[in-house]
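Standup notes
- DV: blocked on the single-chain target, sequence here:
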Amino acid sequence: MSAANHKIEVLSVPGAAVPDAMPARSPWATMRAGLGTRAGLTDTPVAVVVRKGAVLVLEQGNNRIQAFDVAGNPVNYFGGGTSPFAPLPTSTGGLERVDLATDALGFLFVLSYSGNGTKPADYRLEIFDPQGNFVTRTDGLVARRIAVDPFRTVFALNYASIAGAPRVEPSVSQWIPSTPSS
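- DV (later): unblocked, structure below
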């Protein structure tokens, strides 16, 4: 994935190993997408997750999550299988979306910040149901990357003051959200 070039690269892996002596038979990644707003095109893709055979791409520029199949073609995944898009809520103040994760039930977790991201209050975690509908938002989850386990525990890569450390250090934090149990 390339945010600057608005591209997604798809690598088709061969069914068997290719000998080192035959590099011409090695697979090459093919470019998909391109700058745009219609299905199959992207604008500043920043994060990707895989869920039930669909590749879900968080697009900063188009303010949405778009679903692709494993070959890079748009697929109707959201809205009960009627749309490849899950539009994200708009916000005043220039919201920068930075990461996307999913849990075992398909809930989508979108991490973002507003302004220049220098204050904890600038950060937020939005949770959407598997169809892309907004569920809840938590402010103050300061992180740059997230991962979600099957129990909806969010693990966040961040910087924090650690007891006994002479400076702020990279750390991993844990956060347990409340979401519907559907």
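- Follow-up: The mean pLDDT is 86.
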